[in-house]
Design brief:
Elements lengths: L2 E5 L9 H5 L1 H6 L1 H4 L12 E4 L2 E4 L10 H5 L5 E5 L1
Antiparallel strand pairs: 1-4, 2-3
The chain binds iron/sulfur cluster (2 copies).
Length: 81
Amino acid sequence: MAYRLVVHPELCHGCGNCVVACPVNASKSTEVAGGKGPQEDVGLSIIVEDGVVRINQLKECKNCATCIKACPVGAIGLEEV
Ligand code: SF4
Ligand code: SF4
């Protein structure tokens, strides 16, 4: 069974937990690895833009669910494809 990441911006309050929790993001950005927001688009998987979560690029997403566990409001999930 295959899954893909989905986000629900209407539930998101923009805390950024998911962005810094994502191991793929951390591997691409030293800012994110240090717990901050990214300064530029370096192909992060999941980002916060205009105060809400957005999927940016999922090419390297591992479907590890770390971002899902980091979200306090259930604004990220995996759906079957
Ligand atoms: S599922 Fe894992 S790799 Fe994909 S965006 Fe979430 S934390 Fe990153
Ligand atoms: S999706 Fe969840 S963890 Fe990510 S910024 Fe929104 S509220 Fe925070």
